């Protein structure tokens, strides 16, 4: 089973958030150690040696997944509480912090003066679209807060997809839960005062 400490939250600073490669690498690593390998993590919880070997199990080829044994409920609950939910919460904390950074003013924006200069030049430009229909095109450079906000929006969509998939597999292997992943995570947060 994956170690939850391998996905500990990095030091949350605006510098971390604005380094989009580092932010994406953290999210990718966290997802790969827990969610992308969810089947392996769940298989590690199943210990067939407790039931003993049944020689008749090899007489017939097992092709359907309904023949899978349900994993011990205590092991499943421990995995969900200690590994899965804590990993999801860490990623949520990082995304929420960086979303706050993206919506805050950025006094240290290195491209602020360049964007202001380009904007002033654009206001002074005279455009005759009859002579050059493409001359009206102006693509101002995006502020790094806007770029970060777009990245956070995209990563939240990815999180939703990954968590739905992981929760579906957990329910399939651990016995179905009537809760959605959002409800289960919120219940876990209430228990852990997060």
From TrEMBL:
Cellular-component GO terms for this entry: mitochondrial intermembrane space
Family label: Belongs to the MIX23 family.
Protein name per the record: Caffeine-induced death protein Cid2
